[in-house]
C-alpha cells in the first residue's frame, strides 16, 4: 500500500491509500488514520478511490478509527468508487455506517448520494 497523502484540511485528516489494504498493509493504514500528531484527529476522511482491494483487516481499522473519533464528537467518512470496496461494505452490513462519498469535499460537507443511487 502506497500513500498519496495524508494531509490535514480544516482540522480534518485526509488519508489516501493506494493499492490494497489487507492483513499486511493494515498497520500502515492504521498509522495513516491515527496520524503522528500528539492529539488524535476527531475528523477523518479516508479517500479509497485508489484502493482496488480491501479486506476485513482494513475494515477493522476503519471501525476502530470511527469508534475513536466518535468518542470525541467526531466522525470517519469514506470516499470510494471501486466495486470491490463497495462490495465489502455491503456484504458486511457496514454500508450504512460508511456511506459512499464521491469526493473528499462531499465527505467533508456530508453530501452522500442517496442509497437508491448506489
UniProtKB/TrEMBL annotation:
GO molecular function, one term: anti-sigma factor antagonist activity
Gene3D superfamilies reported for this sequence: STAS domain
Source taxon at top rank: Bacteria
InterPro entries the record matches: Anti-sigma_ant, STAS_dom, STAS_dom_sf
Coiled coil regions, renumbered to chain: none
Residue stretches making up the STAS domain: 19-111
One Pfam family matching this protein: STAS
Family of the protein in this entry: Belongs to the anti-sigma-factor antagonist family.
Protein name listed in UniProt: Anti-sigma factor antagonist
